[in-house]
Amino acid sequence: MALPSLLLLPFLLAAASGNTPPIFNMTIVYVSEDRLIGDFAFRLTATDLDGDTLSYSISGADAFYFNVDQSTGVATVRNLLDRESQARLTLTVTVSDGINDATAKKLTVIVEDSNDNAPVFKGLPYETSVPENMPAGSIIYTISATDADTGNAAKVSYSILEVIPDNAKNFWLFYILPNGSVVLNGSLDYATNTFYQLKILAQDGGGPLYGATVVQNSTTYFSITVVDLPNLDPRFLNEPYSGSVSENSPLGVSVLTVTATDRDTGVNDEIFYSITNASVPFAINMTTGIITVSGWLDREQLPSEEVLLEVQAREKNLDIHGMVAKASTVVTILVVDVNDNKPEFYQCSLPSCDFTKSQSNFKGSIIEHSSSKVPVSNLSIVAHDPDKGINSTFELYLQGGSASAFSVSPTTIVGTGEVQILVQNPSEVDYEISHVMVVQLVANDTGNPVNCCSVATVTINLIDTNDHFPEFPQSVYVLSVMENSPEGTIIAPNITAYDPDSGAYGQITYQLLPDTILGTFTVNAMSGAVLVSKGASLDRETRSIYYANIQAKDGGGMMNTALLEISVLDENDNAPIITGSYFISVEEGQNVSTQVKAIDNDEPNTPNSELGFRILPGLFSNNFTINETTGQMHSKEPLDREALDDGDGQLVVTVEVYDHGVPPLSTQVNVTITVADINDNTPVFLEQSYEFSIFESSSNSFVGTVAATDADKTEINFRISFRLQSGNGSSNFLIRSHQLGTGNYSGQLSLDPDTTMDYDTLQQKSFYLLVVAENTATDIVRNASVPVVVHVLDVNDESPSIVPTSQTVTVSENGTQQGLVYTVSASDPDTNHSLVIEELQVTCLKNSTSAGDVCWDWFALLPNGSLLVNSSEIDFELCDTVKLMLRAEDLYTEKGDRYSKNGTLTINIKDINDNTPVFLPISETFVVVPEVSTVDLQVATVRATDVDSGLGGAITFSIFEVVFMEENGNNRTLENLFKVVTTGEQNNYVGSIQVASNLDVSLKGKYQVTVNAQDRTAPQNTAQTVLTIFTVDQSYRIRLQFSKPVEEVQSKLEEIKTSLTLATKATVYVVGISSPEDSRAARAQVKSVMDAYFVYSNGTALDVNELSQLIQSNTQALVQLVELGLAVIGSGEVTETNKETQMIGIIAGLAAFLVLFILIMTLVLILTTRSYKRKLNAMKALKVATTLSPTVAQQGAGIPGTNKYNAEGANPMLNLPMDLSHDLGFHEDTSSLASTNSLDENKVDSPKDNNPKAKPHKSHPTDPTEDKVLVAALDAKEPSKMAFINSTFSTTDL
Questions:
Q1: Is 467 helix (H, G, I), strand (E, B) or coil?
Q2: Omega of the bond prior to 663 within 30 degrees of 0, cis?
Q3: What is the pLDDT of residues 359-397, one digit of tens each?
Q4: Angle at which helices 1266-1276 and 9-17 cross, to 10°
Q5: Is cis: bond before 351, omega within 30 of 0?
Q6: 125: pLDDT confidence band, cut at 50, 70 and 90?
Q7: How many CB atoms lie within 10 A of CB 839?
Q8: For residue 1051, how many C-alpha atoms fall within 13 Å in the half-sphere facing its CB?
Q9: DSSP per residue, 100-165
């Protein structure tokens, strides 16, 4: 009994100590990164079964961030946290009860994200250049910003805050898409702005920070340089242009320079110059714009001293439209005068001089002995110098033999002036001395010594005085003139007298006397010709002879006379005169005869008085004849009254009576014949048929008017009455006759007041009537008839309708369709209508539920039913159906309702692929155990959704990148490790991340898997997310040894896993079940071994010590596992136990605790006989081991002869490290297995390669009380509950 009883020794010693160390129940805590210094972070909590006062502390590199209150365990923030720098902290937390050794444990602190990071722009600075003709809708640039936060706080959206310059005007010139693409929304113009700067806002989706929801944002500037294109014409600088140049300047002299620039300043094309107007004496340099003299310049020969040049500037290259870019300007050049002309003389009077031909000889006259300063008459001299200003000043003076008798005025002229020669010495002006005097007139330009002077010769004729009488050659002149001679008729061409005086005194004028004769005749005062006076009336029949005196008078007033006898000769100037009047009356159908009589007053028995007769052409001239000599007139046939248009029945024939003079004269007379009417004509309708229309139910009974005429000319004969021929609906109508004019009557057709026309009930819509026109003036009735059609017309009294009532059209979103997309159809049964379509209501729907008013301005409905796209912001994701309530209105409605019943136009918005897939938040942690992860095993899942429809909303997942992050901080990119399988769920898609190839079991760290989500139609949109898959490496594989064979363990595998899960709350991954290979295990009757991993959902795994403690702490699970054959946890040795002996040992131990205590003390005394000192050391080690928690003690070899470990983790005897594997720790002292370091054998074998060889010895029988002792010890001991924290994980403990 000694050796079996020794098994209970550690339990009894622990009980005797009376106190247990505290136990930590914490493995992981969460702290938000926005906690301020001094804020509460977390509370350390430990359990002490003895109720001792506990003291807390923390240590480790990450303890830098926290302070811990030793008494309460409250941890506060010591230094600010930053999840983006370090998302996971590892602390060594220690708790002490002041009695036992302090308990230490690793605690993981997960730093939770707060929205403390603003988006960060990538690829700064943002700047680009765009051509000014870039079309609207083009993407200019793509802005990209990232946010180090997670979740919504990492989702970045973009907007434009400001556009520089002129934000108010240019703000809508650009807009930015959700993906950061900046889009041009209008047109650019380099001439207006060459540069734009956009203030871009990047804003995250918001998240918690300091207890509130905060949205972080960042701004940056995006610079856009507008690239100039050649689209503008050049422009002249410093307009207007003017310059001056002296006349006679040599060729090539520079006048001025014009300068033009390309208004496309960014292009600055080369400019070429040219002068476009022809025949100008200037040229321009094609490249420099310098204008030079190219021809002879004579200011006096130019049309104007200012020369206007049309200068054109054109660019070297064509503009963007393929046209020549050009501009024009006007250059004014003043030609400056040079004194290069001498004065000249011209015979003209100002201001009518043209100065085209100068004169050097002039003539004038003056009466002899005229007074001083009297100018020479008949002298028109103008002196002119074409130069300008002072250059045109010149002097005048006289020279020659007669110069002393005259002077010149003025003596000085500037430019142009009239010149007079004045008498200076009257005594020298003597006709008897000389009839002619000559002087030289000199004009001297003193400023032009080279070409100074012009000389003109002036001849002056002297006028004599009167001293002779005029005389006629005859004293009597006999003349004749035809009567009726016109004014100015010459009777005698030259009756002249002679006067020997010279000049004016020798000039004779003529006059007729007495003055009464001047009304009939006159004489030419200079030539003496006798003429018929103005207004004279020479009529032989009134006066046949005239007498007058002709008087001759010279310039001095001396006169003489002669007699004139003038006879008036006859001419044919009297027309025949009609005698009597000619008015004749006759009934139609009879002939007419009469004689026309006349006389002539011209000289008898001459052709002038011989008469003839003829009928002049006219309406009725062909109906009559007349005798040419006697004037007897006859009608050719009986007369017809209706052939006459005259209302009185009169016809007029014009007869002309003429004489035989030269030229012959004639007189006309009208012969008026009145023809009496008789009733000999039948009425005639004006139209061959009539057609009228009336509206149904019309209150106006008037239908229409027929008209007929009767050719007879008297009322009794042309009166017409109308009636309706009976039959074919004539009883529905009435007709009344009305006179319109002579022989013209109308019949007003109207509806019988007792008759109502209803278009809808009438079988016939038209009536065919026969109207009769009658004349009953005589016994013989004369009548005519005409067909009349009367149509009954429909009245607009029906309501319109929209056909069909419900209409449907499909329109693509995002402005991909513009303009007319549909035309609403409507109809109206009325024959005359004008329909307009009205919009009554707009309903916006998304998935058949209301979407508010988001779509109200998307479409415009025109009155003609045309549906136009009115917005580029049509968004399927906001509204997929737009319903328009419509009605049609008939503008021509006369009666009834003008509106139709309401109709519906359903506009289905067609989705286009404009949305990027969005990953759904992931709340779970993904763990993979490489050793048990087979190909196609699912290790993680992602979910994403796309609000587009159809293939645009269908998502396909793919693996973009796999990076393995090792514990030492190194990263490796791996390929083909994982694959993704896409499946669909309601409203989203699931990507199953599966193992694609065998994983490396030796790697320690985690996989970062970047997954792409891409929709399935063009343009394809892609989103990414990064998954973290934690690995459980081979170091966490635990071997469990069973006393059952492999087959039985395999058959009860699910029960074993259930029990293990019950004890550990972890997922059990079984690597394999096999037979033991270790010989010691075989000796210990271990029949099978199972390798497994114990992994929690947060990625942490259990090691062998933690598994052992958890199983020991759960009695129910322990009993179940023992029943299922569990013998050893780890690689240690164990003897076979059975359930019965375990239960007996437990019961016996509990029942005889005090008795066993006495027995143990006795046994201790006996055992000291072999080696007291060594015995004493072993007992001390035992006491120390019982007071330490397994989590505090370092893992090392067992103390010889015990199931505990010392504080140093080594054999106290040899001070050597021991094998880390161990069993449940209760079989080291059994007689069935001798420890390699047993105190009983007093020798130790050194371990070799962690597989010490035990010295063969005899096995002792198994004590049946060992199982009892095991169970009793496990029930008495409450081990600390703990879990190993894998330092590579930074996930949430689920």
A1: coil
A2: yes
A3: 889 999 988 888 888 899 889 899 988 888 788 888 899
A4: 20
A5: yes
A6: very high
A7: 17
A8: 6
A9: SPPEEEEEEEEEE--S----EESSPSEEEEEETTPPTT-EEEE--EE-SS-GGGG-EEEEEEEEES
